Each structure stands twice: as structure tokens, then as C-alpha cells.
Amino acid sequence: MCSLPHSVHPLIHPFIQNIKNNQKQYQSLYSISESVCNISKLLYQSYTNSLMICVLQEICDNPQFIVGGASRTDICQGDLGDCWMLAAIASLTLNDKLLYRIVPQEQSFSEGYAGIFHFQFWHYGDWVDVVVDDRIPTFNNQLVFTKSAERNEFWSALLEKAYAKLHGSYEALKGGNTAEAMEDFTGGVTEFYEMTEAPKELYKIMKKALQRGSLMGCSIDSLVPARFETRTTTGLVKGHAYSVTAVEECKQSQQKESKVRLVRLRNPWGQVEWNGPWSDKMSFEDFKKNYTKIEICNLTPDALEDDKLHKWTVSVNEGRWVRGCSAGGCRNYPDTFWTNPQYRLRLLEEDDDSEDNEVACTFVVALMQKNRRRERKLGANLFTIGFSIYEMHGNKQHMQKEFFMSGTSKARSRAYINLREVTQRFRLSRGEYVIIPSTYEPHQEGEFILRFSRVYFTTPMSDQPAPASTGEESEEDQQFLSFFQQIAGDQMEISANELKDVLNKVVSKQKDIHTEGFSRESCRSMIALMDMDGKGRINLQEFRQLWNKLKQWQGIFKQYDFDHTGTISSYEMRNTINDAGFRLNNQLYDIITMRYANENMNVDFDSFVSCLVRLEGMFKLIKLNVLIS
User: Fold this and answer.
1) How far apart are the first and last CA of the chain?
2) 3 state DSSP class of 68
3) Where is the Calpain catalytic domain (predicted)?
4) Percent of the chain, pLDDT > 70?
């Protein structure tokens, strides 16, 4: 796998293009033996001896990547128990923008063909590009696993192979829930509804979810493992994943004005359908009676660019439970529970669309354990996981044992369960909280990500430029303009030393910001960031842009200055950097803390700005290199 920025379009990575060029030069095709992943690793258990690995051109004369557009009929399950993944793919075909992000459509078996294909997946907070060749497991010259209704169409089979490679093997895909695949295809956050506990407005929830592009799956639980994927008298299959592809209302007959609510479902097998009323659809009432649970994957902004009315904002925190240090188990183990990783949650903005009079903040917490499917062949199983939420007041330190012994949680996950992810929606009052993710048993070591999501309702954005502000400039803006004009002179440009004078004069008048003044080195970094013509000086327009950044960063800084000392705790650097729009790995967060925190583990405003200026410059350079390459 090679990491890709999720915003790169088209999705032809230089690494892939280099392979194509090399294969063209030597007049050969990319093969599995040259790739990172060997087919014997993809088939790590019972399949290896009975299957043949065939190049797709050997299966048919005219192989095609996509025939007549990708649709749900292109996904027919084979001998692998991965219906949960195929149900997610079927839902994906309802939205071309989502589908062609995962399955880049410029690929083919004809022009410039080099035997290589690539697909993108969301993988624990990052988008990764997975490369595969054109060799697929077969038996008697027939595809063994996923296939299309069109014999010469192979995008779904190749997508399945790439997903198997992501998780280590085909066999690692046996068994799962649709939510897992939906999230890997979108980066979204999934909510679960048990039919026995579903809200009255479930049909409305489903309809709105499909309208905003959410993916949806459902299933019928089987309490007896031996009866998994057994057919019922109604034609439905227990222990099997379905995708919900539409909900609609229609008249029961021409004579009756009343309407019936219908749900359209897709079985990844491509056959064995509901044989009750309405044929390939079923009434919503029958749907609730026959299915056990439904999963709705809400898309994040980077997954669905045109979702302007219903925007999810998601923050991602990486963590790990370390035996003997931070693997404390659940609340049943009070002596170690407090040692689990802790994450601060500040709820400041109340819902503006609530249908009742309760003043509260709605949010979703999702705890996901990492890499357990990939490590299954090593004997790893999913941990039983969950989380608790406690209210706190101003304490910035890791909460100690006494806090949890004397207090009760404000909210928690419904249960500890052995799923990859535990997700739940909450409504709490404004305030400060701490989230404690944990395994049920202590001393279990593993990695996880904790996602926190809020929904914001915004007005549609216009493509036209915003009109110039007609309001008066703030006193602060007038001050910096005056200082700039005094120092810049007739040229209306300033150097690093002059920028230092301007900023220090303005910041010195702000009593709630503690700083010994911006250093010359910090100001040189700011000049380098904003100087578009390479003169080593910035003009008034560039200075305005810099000033707007500084005001934005100042707002973030003040938000995390909990004790109003003019500094922030180094423990908050991860959150402030995330709020500024940067996502880094744990190692970089550690390095930044060591570099910019003082001996009291605090960061002043000058150091904070210096950090963000360097990060912005680094990301700017990375984007430039991507464009050049």
C-alpha cells in the first residue's frame, strides 16, 4: 500500500504510472510475483491447493473493467463469506462520486494496459491506494469469489482482491458487518438501530439518509451459527447482509388513495429474494418484522463534496491500550480503569435544529479497534470494547482513580461488544467531558481510533464570490493597518524585522495572550510562508492574509487556554493542531510537544504560532511536490 492524499484527482499516483511505463518499456505485464503481496498469502488456508490463478485474458476473449456503467447487478457473491462487504459495494453503486473515488474509472484492459489496477480505501483515518495485478483465483476457468452478471466484466472481482490485500488475505474477509465495509469505502461514521428498539421515525430517518447520500445495510441475526445463511420460507436469508437501495411511497391501487411505504433491498447473491408482497420490494412493516438491525453510514465532508445542507464534522484521535500502562479494562476493574487513555470533549454549541425545547448538544462517538481482521491469521480476535463519558470541570490532568470511584458516568456505550467499532449518538448539556475508551477485560493490548462527530446544518453556499464587507473594521484591524503603514513606507512592503515590530506592537496590547514577543526567526518563517514573489518581504495584501491566519489561530489558542494564563497545556497541542486543519501521526505530535513546550509543559502564543507556520509551510511544500510530480 502507498499512502495518497485523499484530495488527489485524478487518482493516478506516480508510483502506479512508473510501473506502467516500466511494463511498456519491457513489453511485459505487471504480475503478482513483482508486487508486495503474494497469492499464497492472499489464500492463507484451505484454498491454495484447489484453485488456479488465471490472468483475466485467459478467462474470456474481451475482458472489460466496467461494462455499461457500474451497477448493483455487477456484484454476485462467490464462495467467500463476504456478503457484508458486497452489500456495501451495492450501496456504493447508487452514488457515482463515491464509487469512482474507490474504483477509479479511467482504468481499462486496452489503452496503455500494463496488468495493474488500483483502488482507494479509508484505512483507520487515512486514505490509502492499494495496487493489484490482473490475476484472479479460479476453478474450472470460473471465478471462485465475487463476479459480475456480465462474464467479461471484472471491476468488482478486482475490487474484492484489493480489499483482501488491504486486510491480509481473502480468508480474512470471512464474516463481518456491513458497517465495517461502508466505513472503509467512505470514511463515514455508522449508526446502528435494532428493530426492536428503533425510533418511531425510522422510515423518515432512512429516507433522509438516502437523500443525503448515506450508505445503508441491514441483516437478520441467526442465534444458531449452523443456520447462518439459511433461507427462510419468505425467501430471506439469516445471518446474511443486505443493502438498502431505496425507500419510496406508492399507491396501493388505482382505486385507493392511501399510500404504502416500501423498501428496496439488494441481496449480494444476486438471487434468493423476498417472495412476499411487492416482489423485489417489501413494505416497511414487513421490513421491520423480518430484519433484526439496520446500519446507516453517515458520510463525512471529504467523502461527499456536494452535501451542503447536512455536514458532518469529524475529529479523529489515535490511541492504544498498552499492557501494564494503559490497558485498564472496564469500570468493573476500578483499580486500573482510570489508567485507560482519556480524551477531553468540550461541548460548546447547542443544537439549532432540535424539535423539542431541550437545550443540548448532539454528537456521535465511535470507537474502532485497529488491524484485528488483518491479524486474524495470527490468532487475533476482536476485543470486547466500549466507552464511558464523564463530566468534568476544568481539570487538565489525567483523571485519577478517586474521580471515577466517587462519580458516575453521564453516558456510555449501550454495551461492551466484540465488534470492530462501537458507535452511539448522545445528547448532553454544554460543558466539559472526558471519554474513556477501553476493552472489557484489562491487560489487553491493541490500537484504536476514537472519532467524535457533530452535525451542523448550514445554508447552501453560492459559487459567486462573497461581496466585500461593508461593516467597519475592528479597532484591532485599524491598529495593525496603521502600524503597517508607519513601518512599510512608500514601498508598502515589510521585512522580517519590520513584521516583528508590527506584530509585537499589536499583540502587546492584548492582555489575554501571554508571549514574550515574536522572535525574528518566527517572523522569517511567516515571511517565507506568505511571500509569493520571493523578495523576502510581504506587501499589504499578503500581510492581511497572514493577519487573518493569526486571528484564526488566536481563536483556537484561546479556546484551549482553560485557566486563562495566556498559555496552553502541551497535552492540548494535538487538539489545537487538529482544529487548525492538520492531521499528523503520533510520532509527530510527540516531537512537536518536545520542541515547543517549556519546562512546565506549557506552550505560549509565539511558540504555538511558530509551530503552525512551520506545519503550513511543510504541507504547502508537499502539495507543490504532488502537483509537480
Assistant:
1) 19
2) coil
3) 57-300
4) 77
* CA–CA distance, 156 with 78 (Å, rounded to integer): 11
Sheet holding 431-439, edge to edge: 343-347, 431-439, 385-392, 411-412
Nearest-angstrom CA–CA distance, 187 and 126: 8
Among residues 76, 240, 297, 611, which one is catalytic? 240
Active site residue 218: no
Show the cell assigned to 395. Answer: 481539570
**C-alpha grid cell, residue 514:** 501571554
How many Å apart are CA 317 and CA 574, to the nearest integer?
9
- The rounded distance, in Å, linking the Cα atoms of 287 and 293 is 10
> Is residue 256 packed enough to be buried (19+ CB in 10 Å), middle (13-18) or exposed (0-12)?
exposed
Q: For this structure, is 54 an active site residue?
A: no
Residues whose CB falls within 8 Å of the CB of residue 461, separated by 6 or more in sequence, listed in order: 308
Distance separating alpha carbons of residues 164 and 352, to the nearest angstrom: 43
What pLDDT is attached to residue 50?
A: 63
DSSP codes of every residue in 267-323: -TTS-----STTTTEEEHHHHHHH--EEEEEEPPTTT-TT--SEEEEEEEEEEEE-T
Torsions phi, psi for 238 (to 5 deg): -75, 150
Q: Please state the rounded mean pLDDT for residues 335-354.
A: 81
Burial annotation 277-303 (CB, 10 A radius, 16+ → b, else e): eeeebbbbebbeebbebbbbbbbbeeb
Strand partners, 250: 260
Q: For residue 464, what pLDDT is reported? A: 32
* 219 close to 177: Cβ distance less than 8 angstroms: yes
> Domains in the chain and their CATH numbers?
2-179 (no CATH), 189-298 (3.90.70.10), 310-457 (2.60.120.380), 479-628 (1.10.238.10)
The answer to whether 564 is a known catalytic residue is: no
Query: Taking residues 498-509, what's their average pLDDT?
Result: 78
Residue-level pLDDT at 468: 34
Of 470 and 504, more confident: 504
pLDDT at residue number 40: 52
How does DSSP classify residue 512? T
SS3 content of the chain, % helix, strand, coil (to 5): 35, 25, 45
Q: Which runs of E-coded beta strand occur in 340-430? A: 343-347, 361-369, 385-392, 411-412, 421-428
Dump pLDDT digits (tens) for 591-618: 887 788 888 888 888 889 889 988 988 8
Show Cβ contacts of residue 614 under 8 Å, excluding neighbours closer than 6 positions.
525
**What span, in angstroms and rounded, lies between the C-alpha atoms of 498 and 483?**
10
Q: Which of 177, 267, 504, 602 is catalytic?
A: 267
| Residue 277, pLDDT above cutoff 90 | no
Instruction: pLDDT band for 413, please (50, 70, 90 cuts).
Output: very high
pLDDT digits (tens, 9 = 90+) for 349-396: 777 654 556 678 888 899 999 999 989 888 889 999 999 999 998 776
Model confidence over 566-580: pLDDT tens digits? 888 887 787 888 888
DSSP 8-state secondary structure symbol assigned to residue 7: T
* Structure confidence by residue, pLDDT tens digits, 393-408: 877 677 888 899 998 9
Q: Which three cell numbers stand for residue 139?
A: 476453478
Q: What is the dihedral of CA 532, 533, 535, 536, to 10 degrees?
A: 10
Residue pair 360/428 in contact by the 8 Å Cβ criterion: yes
Active-site hit among 13, 37, 76, 83: 83
